[in-house]
Design the sequence.
């Protein structure tokens, strides 16, 4: 699967957890993502919603081995991360 | 273990030090925040005081916009990983006349500089 999808395609992906970090910035975005990621079991997926481009890039880089897909839509960024 | 020694009482520096600690903890590194001197006074008081009008304004706006959290919330995020301990310096408490029950409950214990430095591989001073 290509990494970059449209946000409509992203919405179709089934996930076990959703983390809405709209309005949050670093380092809170990175720390809260790690808190939720740690709760996932093997193979589970989490959808992380952000409005900070920098945070989306940081988390995308930090979790690049686990990044399944992402999309951007105006000021909204969604990452799908798989444990 | 990483020791982050907080000396300054300026709120933004304390918040930054706690952010470092929470991130280290999130990255599964053992970290200790050692509260010394003026940082003890700030954690006992409420309010955002950076010791500089302009910085106060910027930090208060960021706080109201939800981009910066209160000290307790930043600490709880770090403690969620189980790698963060917060120790108050007994010497500083004596100098400033601060007692243990004046302090917020997220302060785990009172300790001395010797044991902190003995176990520290890295020290960050703020």
Sequence:
């Amino acid at each position: 699967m290509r990494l970059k999808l449209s946000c409509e395609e992203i919405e179709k992906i089934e996930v076990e957890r959703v983390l809405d970090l709209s309005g949050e910035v670093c380092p809170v975005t990175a720390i809260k993502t790690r808190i939720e990621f740690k709760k996932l079991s093997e193979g589970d997926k989490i959808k992380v919603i952000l409005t900070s481009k920098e945070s989306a890039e940081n988390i995308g880089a930090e979790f690049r081995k686990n990044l399944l897909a992402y999309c951007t839509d105006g000021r909204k960024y969604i990452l799908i991360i798989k444990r | 273990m990483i020791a982050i020694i907080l000396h300054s009482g300026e709120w933004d520096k304390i918040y930054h030090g706690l952010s470092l600690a929470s991130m280290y903890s999130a990255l599964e590194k053992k970290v200790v925040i050692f509260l010394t001197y003026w940082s003890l006074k700030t954690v006992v008081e409420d309010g955002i005081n950076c010791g500089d009008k302009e910085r106060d304004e910027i930090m208060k706006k960021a706080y109201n916009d939800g981009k910066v959290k209160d000290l307790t919330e930043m600490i709880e995020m770090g403690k969620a990983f189980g790698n963060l301990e917060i120790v108050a310096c007994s010497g500083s408490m004596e100098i400033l006349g601060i007692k243990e029950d004046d302090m917020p409950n997220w302060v785990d214990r009172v300790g001395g500089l010797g044991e902190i430095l003995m176990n520290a591989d890295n020290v960050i001073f703020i």
